[in-house]
Amino acid sequence: MAIEEGAVPAEAPAVDAHAHVFTRAMPFAAEAHSRPDYDYGVEAWLADLDRHGISHGVIAAASLFDDGNAYTLSALASHPGRLRATVIVPPETDATTLAEMADAGVVGVRLAWRRVEDLPDIAREPYRGFLRRIADRGLHVELLSRSASLPRLLPALDASGVRIVVDHFGVPSRDPEERGAGTDALCRAIDGGRTWVKLSAGFRMPFAIAAEVAARLLAHAGPERLLWGSDAPFVNHEGDIRFADTLDLYRRLVPHPAVRAAIDRAALLLFFNQESE
């Protein structure tokens, strides 16, 4: 049963590691696949976190918008202790700019390639240097890409030396063979020691698939390499999903409080460089 909206659940997550914040004043990217006609500003998200007892949050850069990360950076400036964020920047971005963003609370650079058919060769320039600069600044790559592409992308990213955070269970395919190959690639990357996977946006896939991938990752790597995120405000699913539903789904996928607490510890250490209390 879903948690009643407004009720603070027991054992709330410490970190929502994946949410998007935006306003209608922000320009859409030319290739935006959706165009929300409402605001979900940082204060609205923080109100959702407060309502559900969640202390920290990580903004995931939204590929829908083309505001040069201005709104995200302003949110970080307003809530420096509570929030971190990823950004979307071109591969030519220089080390000074990345360092300034890191100082502002940016923890990673998002590669939103889920809908990209012709993926770049990240072992060549400009990506080779870009990944080196990201790693040198202590940032991670936040990868959003389909499971079919993970066997190619993850070894190349790992070879670059950068830390990797994979969104949305690795966007598992409905095809069992393709999904299995993608999950295998996630497990191999985790074994390399620099990769984490978000159990986020589970509502965007059949529950059986989310449960399958979550169980495989937990069995292979344990909770120390997993993170949880709400994917608020649930773009294209706003009428079907409430924030409380994402918590209910998380508890169904990871039913043991001690395991969820270990996921909290991983998120606090990775994003906030702090131990949980």
TrEMBL record:
This is Amidohydrolase-related domain-containing protein. The lineage of its organism: Bacteria, Pseudomonadati, Pseudomonadota, Alphaproteobacteria, Sphingomonadales. Gene3D superfamilies: Metal-dependent hydrolases. Residues 15-263 form the Amidohydrolase-related domain. InterPro entries: Amidohydro-rel, Aro_Compnd_Degr_Hydrolases, Metal_Hydrolase. One of its GO terms (molecular function) is hydrolase activity.
